[in-house]
Design brief:
The chain is an alpha/beta fold and 281 residues long. It has a single domain, classed as 4-Layer Sandwich (Nitrilase/N-carbamoyl-D-aminoacid amidohydrolase). It is globular, with a radius of gyration of 18 Å.
Length: 281
């Protein structure tokens, strides 16, 4: 399967952001048509106040951003993975990935599980739980014979989620992010490669880059494609653009046959070891 990863510098201007996403997807499609286009976290709206986040939130798939990408997917006859948008339901706000198939039909949605409550170097705090509600489901989907898993930004720090993906036999894990530059500089590549290695899956990382319009937050860029052995196959740096890559599923099978970690893990568990009991260690 051919995939294209789009890297954006989204602001608090929905029309501008959608125009830029549309431009890059069409540019990639004209150059080398893909079966799936992958966008970063906060594609339609990045930054802004809590009030603005709620004002631009929508129901899925009826909302205007959802309809925009549904129509684009149908026009291009390609899947589109909308990295994330603000979803409203029952008075709650969710950070939600939305996936459309090549006919523009809703294929899957994923609400971010792990919300980032952390202090950046320098003391600035990010408290996502004060704005968003957490999702409650692990989400995978199939497109063109490839099984994908969904993750958003802070999810990357929780290996138990990625081990669950591996047990669902996914071929590729999609990671949509707007990680603060301070964290990404130290941890992004290390964690992405670790997740690829431990799950023996492709990792497809689409990231925001550059500063927001108000200059209060900056994302690092470095969208990348990592193979199941942990090798970086393609990478963008701190520029708006896209990557196109052909996923080779035989590579997944080869690596898993070479190092059968799931079989080893099952053997340890069946022997009676309990990881919940610290007394075993």
């Amino acid at each position: 399967m051919r995939v294209s990863i789009v890297q954006l510098n989204s602001h608090d201007d929905v029309e501008r952001n959608l125009c830029e996403a549309n431009r890059l997807i069409r540019e990639a499609h004209s150059a080398n048509p893909a079966q799936l286009y992958i966008l970063p976290e906060y594609t339609p709206f990045a930054g802004g106040s809590v009030e603005q986040k709620r004002a631009f939130a929508e129901t899925i798939p009826e909302g205007p951003v959802s309809r925009f990408f549904s129509n684009l997917a149908s026009e291009l006859s390609a899947g589109i993975y909308c990295g994330s948008l603000n979803e409203t339901q029952g008075g709650q706000l969710f950070n939600t990935s939305v996936i459309f198939d090549r006919s523009g039909e809703l294929l899957a949605t994923y609400r971010k599980l792990y919300l980032m409550d952390a202090t950046l170097p320098g003391g600035r705090q990010i408290l996502e739980s004060s704005v968003y509600s957490s999702g409650s489901k692990i989400v995978t989907f199939e497109l063109g014979g490839v099984r994908f898993a969904c993750s958003i930004c802070y999810d990357l720090r929780f290996p138990e989620l990625f081990r669950a993906f591996r047990r669902r036999d996914v071929d590729a894990i999609i990671f949509a992010a707007a990680m603060p530059k301070e964290h990404a500089a130290a941890h992004l590549e290390v964690l992405l490669r670790a997740r690829a290695i431990e799950t023996q899956s492709f990792v497809l990382a689409s990231h925001q880059c550059g500063k927001r319009a108000n200059n209060t937050r900056e994302s690092s860029g470095h969208s990348m494609i990592i193979d199941p052995w942990g090798a970086i196959e393609a990478r963008l740096y701190d520029e708006v653009g896209y990557l196109t890559y052909d996923l080779d599923l035989d590579r997944v099978k080869e690596v898993r046959a070479r190092i059968p970690v799931i079989a080893a893990a099952d053997g340890v568990i069946s022997s009676g070891v309990s990881f919940a009991d610290s007394g075993n260690w």
